[in-house]
Amino acid sequence: MLAFNSLRFSCSARALLKQNVLRTRRQIVYDAMTCSVHCMPTSCNRKDTWRSHTNFVARGKDSHFSCYTHPVSSLRSFCTDQDKLSCWHCEQPLDKSPAFFCMSCKVVQPPEEGMSYFKIMDCTYTFTVDIQKLQRRYLQLQRSLHPDNFGQKSVKEQEYSEIQSALVNKAYNTLLKPLSRGLYMLELQGMRIEEGTDSEADSEFLMELMEINEALDEARTPEEANKIGKDTKGKLAELTGEIDAVLLKGELQTAKALLAQMKYYANIEEKVKEKLSGFM
């Protein structure tokens, strides 16, 4: 009986361990894709600081990391825990990052250099962002940082509030939609989708886009335009799922190709809105 109970406990522990590994694999891969999202320069004394990126590529049982660096610029230099940031007004240490306000004198602070939009908006670095959490964070920050709150403050505080408020707006709008979010994630990895890359697209895909655009041009009723808009939304949702899947695998080139397709469909979606406004 004792041997049976020991065996049962061993199997249960093994099953629990496997479950935990599967549950955390998603976040582990995203965390491994880049160290630049939350890791900042270790030196604050150089005129030009460098941000390190780490790509994670998984192929079956084999995986590897590739690192590179490139210069970044911003308003405030980020330092390590041994040399923390201090308030520009009272020179007291700032106890958290990002620090929008000094906890001692309550004045607004300038933005930190190299701070990713994900960290500014307190979002997990993932393609499937929690939109409700993102919106709550945006409203919270804008209520406290909006320039209207600093009309009676010093010129320096007014300037910092304008900069911080604009930065929060940009971070929010970038992370809000899948396309801009995905493009930003590629940018963090040093990858961009250049304009005028039609020659790189599949001919069958380009033919499909041409047919959709022609059908939209020929649409004579709101119902016809709405049908095209519904189909386009479905395709965008499908691409969102595919991009999330390949990013989990660290397949950045595939993600780049899918995001390029998403740009085309997003453009059609905007054309549908323009077409519908013409019927009003």
TrEMBL record:
GO terms for biological process: [2Fe-2S] cluster assembly; protein complex oligomerization. GO terms for cellular component: mitochondrion. Residues 116-188 form the J domain. Keywords: Chaperone, Cytoplasm, Metal-binding, Mitochondrion. Pathway: Cofactor biosynthesis; iron-sulfur cluster biosynthesis. It is found in: Cytoplasm; Mitochondrion. The keyword Cytoplasm applies. Pfam families: HSCB_C (PF07743). Gene3D superfamilies: DnaJ domain, HscB, C-terminal domain. One of its GO terms (molecular function) is ATPase activator activity. NCBIfam families: hscB. Belongs to the HscB family. Acts as a co-chaperone in iron-sulfur cluster assembly in the cytoplasm. Also mediates complex formation between components of the cytosolic iron-sulfur biogenesis pathway and the CIA targeting complex composed of CIAO1, DIPK1B/FAM69B and MMS19 by binding directly to the scaffold protein ISCU and to CIAO1. This facilitates iron-sulfur cluster insertion into a number of cytoplasmic and nuclear proteins including POLD1, ELP3, DPYD and PPAT. Interacts with ISCU and HSPA9 to form an iron-sulfur transfer complex. Interacts with SDHAF1 (via the first LYR motif); the interaction recruits the iron-sulfur transfer complex composed of HSC20, HSPA9 and ISCU and mediates the incorporation of iron-sulfur clusters into SDHB which also interacts with HSC20. Interacts with the cytoplasmic form of ISCU and with CIA complex member CIAO1 (via LYR motif). Homodimer. Interacts with ISCU (cytoplasmic form); this interaction stabilizes the (Fe-S) clusters on ISCU. Interacts with the CIA complex member CIAO1 (via LYR motif). This is Iron-sulfur cluster co-chaperone protein HscB. The lineage of its organism: Eukaryota, Metazoa, Chordata, Craniata, Vertebrata.
